[in-house]
Amino acid sequence: MARSTHEARIAQARLILSADAEVSSAQPYKLPQWLVTMLNTALGDLETKHQAVGVIEGARRSNSTEAQRAYDEAEGLLRDVNNYIGGLPRALDQEAIRSHYDLADGMSGSLTQGEVETHLRTVLAASATATPADAQLRPGTLAAITEVLARIDAHKPGAQSGERQRAIDIRDIASEMADDTISRVWHHLAASLPHGVFDGQMTNYGFTPRQPRGSDSAASTPPDAPPPTA
What we know:
This protein has 230 residues and is mostly helical. It has a domain at 29-172. It has 6 helices and no strands. Helix 1 (5-21) packs antiparallel against helix 2 (33-86), helix 2 packs antiparallel against helix 5 and helix 4 (113-126) packs antiparallel against helix 5. The longest helix is centred in the N-terminal third of the chain and has 54 residues, at 33-86. The chain is rod-shaped and about 100 Å long. The chain starts with a helix and ends in a 38-residue tail after the last helix.
């Protein structure tokens, strides 16, 4: 699986810190301490916030799955209630009872999750005042409706994408800060390495050296560039 932009920045920041740790303090391209500190801070911040996005997304998927199961069960309960009304004695006004439960026109075709939830809450509240008493729902049905609505209430907020998007926005800011710090490293190396932007040692830090004009594009360093050294 290809790395995301954020994962690539994390990997390069780690590579830069590892490469710089091998460089003697006598070398002019050794990163200054303030830049190392800045890079460590940016790396830690990005790692934490990137991980948070993954945790929130995992929780969102889990809640979404559980919410969908609850909604499926809720729709089944609605159809059970509709069938129950259809099985009442013919002497009762079934259409009036369906209207009381707000099911007169609500069970034709597929229902959205919002429609399922709204109908089921109406059914739960309407049972106590349904007349005659035979039109009231049985305790077991009421208990099942109460339980499935509780599961919807528990999982619906976590299934929504708002919290995930907020975490992504926060992570993206941290990623931009890391990118800015890595750019500072590039400029430091470009100014300090023996061959500047053409120096083969750029690869030690995850950067691609530029090619001098007229050189073979397949070459990684100009002919007079020294091999990568610590």
